[in-house]
User: Fold this.
Amino acid sequence: MKSFLKFLSLCFMYLMAMSLVGCANPNLQDLRDFVAKKKAEIPERIDPIPEIKQIDTFLYEHQGRRDPFMPTDKRVTQEVDLVENGIMPDINRRKEELENYSLDALRMVGTLQQSGITWGLVKSKEGTIHRVKNGNYMGLNHGRIVLVSEDKIEMNEIIQDSSGGYSERQASLVLTE
Assistant:
């Protein structure tokens, strides 16, 4: 093995030496002629640097003017009075699996009675079937299930309105054949 590595290193050094010998050209007359020709030419005139124009400074006084770094959107500049109606989603509770889907991506496929509880069977877009009951959450708008019947699942969603407050709306999933 050592002799093989020694042989490879000798071959590599031989190839390197041959490549360097191949690069040598003792006849460089064409290069010398080109350099002499360029030195003999009269250099072109270089244009002077253009004069830098002085720009007048401006001191911005903010009294009575809007902040130039704030958006000009009227919704941002107006004071918004929030309506306190007591409706607000619980942002501290742990989200349930079906809250990662919009209601459009969910389908009710059946019901199940077990120990006196009516469970709704909901299929996600991946094809997984989930069991839900009253009190569970689903959908992107904090939808809390209030009724599971044989043909539909009713829920109350909490959505944000244009004034920054929250309001409730009813939504439902209907059993599909």
Notes: The radius of gyration is 40 Å.
